[in-house]
Amino acid sequence: MTATTEESLVPVFSTPSPAVRRVPVDRPWLWLQRGAADLAATPSISLGYGLALAGVGFLATALALLNGWLALLLPLTGGFMLLAPLLAVTFYESSRRQEQGLPPDAHACLVAWRGNLPSIAAFGIVLLLVHLFWVRLATLLYALLLGGAHAGPEGVAAVLLTPAALPFLVVGTVLGAALALATFTISVVTLPMLLDRDVGVFMAVATSVTAVRASPGAMLLWAGLISGAVAVGMATLFVGLIPLLPLIGHASWHAYRDVVRLPAATGAAGGALS
Question: Is 42 helix (H, G, I), strand (E, B) or coil?
């Protein structure tokens, strides 16, 4: 990691607390480089879990199409953005183990959330509630802007490409992007921090918001890269998500480690490595 100076650190609170480091705009490319190295070091764990997540996404989308649930396509797509930080805990732990020189362990990575279970579970509930809110909002938009439009899998494109669907697509995209950006702001380093240290949700979220405020350019680029990865994954019928989800997950760990500086007294989350 690059050496830091006190001038480059932004405290989260005035009392002894975590601090965040300002980073240059192009810093996310370094996070991706380090994430790619972690993925290459543990391909079976990373790609195996990526395949499982992509498979679940594909089945959920196929189910929506086969049953004519056109209104659910938008929230299902957005759900990957909103729940991605929670789904990536396995990748965070894999990168942490590599950083500490520990051998690959698929079981330890899958149960890493147990180390700080109350806080991780609480933030997971927050992300789930945000996703449920997005589902309800997208369904309401569909009902208001597309009325009774209904289509099976062969008619989805026809419905979405009609002039009547344009307001739905525009409004849904704008609101979805705003919600995704807000979720990104409160979660960009939150779950890696909860996994790594025995801290509460409020402290982790405050650190995440401070990190975004301290380096808005870098964080905006990082959000764009994540969105682009999700878009590529969706455009390739989830096949692209198999390597891209692990890549983003591993890189997110390095984003946290690069940006957040914790007080020496802050202990590691107990049991996370077991």
Answer: coil
Residue with tokens 């965070």: 92
| Three-state secondary structure readout of 195-240 | HHECCCHHHHHHHHHHHHHHCHHHHHHHHHHHHHHHHHHHHCCCCC
CB 12 within 8 Å of CB 203: yes
Dump pLDDT digits (tens) for 194-234. Answer: 999 988 999 999 999 999 999 999 999 999 999 899 889 88
Backbone angles phi, psi at 260, to 5 degrees: -90, 135
The position carrying tokens 């509930």 is 125
Helix (H) and strand (E) counts for the chain? 12, 3
**Which neighbouring-strand residues pair with 261?**
19
Q: Are residues 97 and 104 in contact, defined by beta-carbon separation less than 8 angstroms?
A: yes
Helix, strand or coil, per DSSP, at residue 241: helix
Cβ contacts of 61 within 8 Å, gap of 6 or more: 73, 76, 238
Domain chopping of the chain, boundaries: 8-148+155-261
H or E element in which residue 9 lies: strand 9-11
Distances (CA, A) of 146 to 137, 155, 165: 14, 14, 6
Contact 87, 246 (CB under 8 A): no
What's the whole-model pTM score?
0.82
CA distance 17 to 256: 15
Contact yes or no for 189/207 (Cβ under 8 A): yes
How is the chain split among helix, strand and coil, in percent rounded to 5? 75, 5, 25
**What is the DSSP track for 61-130?**
HHHHHHTT-GGGHHHHHHHHHHHHHHHTHHHHHHHHHHHTTPPP-HHHHHTGGGGGHHHHHHHHHHHHHH
